[in-house]
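User: My collaborator sent over this chain with a note saying "see what the structure looks like." That's all I know about it. Can you take a look?
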Amino acid sequence: MTRIEIKATWALLAVAWLGLQCGSPPTKIGNDCQTDAHCGGQENHLTLTCDHTIPGGSCTVDSCTADDPATVEVDESDGCPDGSRCVTEKDDRNVCRRSCERSVDCGEVVLCAEACEEDGGCQTECKNRMLCIPYRAKQSQETDEEYEKIPRTCLVEGSRKS
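Assistant: Without extra context I'll predict from the sequence alone. Here is the result:
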């Protein structure tokens, strides 16, 4: 091989590796939707539905089995496709939400609210409310260090059950 062919081979390998790193998530859970049809039917033999409690709609599986909060391991029988996990939300629904490592894995749900100062001045503030946070609330016996190791999911701020 010539020097040019070796460089070209390395360049192709680098592009292929980057393509794998930037690929789509391993699941449709968390994708935007307006109807159940936008979620693509089934994944891992589970029926995906469009959850309208998330502004803009979000693909999910309803009625999964929440993981045991005493362990960080994912229960493979929780009823969620790979790349997601079961979360108990404030309304006591168990739904599948996309697993994440960083907020950029989650997309955006921008919500606006009026914020008023003590002097009476008000302005509208908009911010992304979709966060990559631990899938469950901190347990009373857990240290901060232990809690930081808890697997994370994409959740709208304030939607997870405490």
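A starting point for your reply to your collaborator: Helices lie at 3-21, 144-148.
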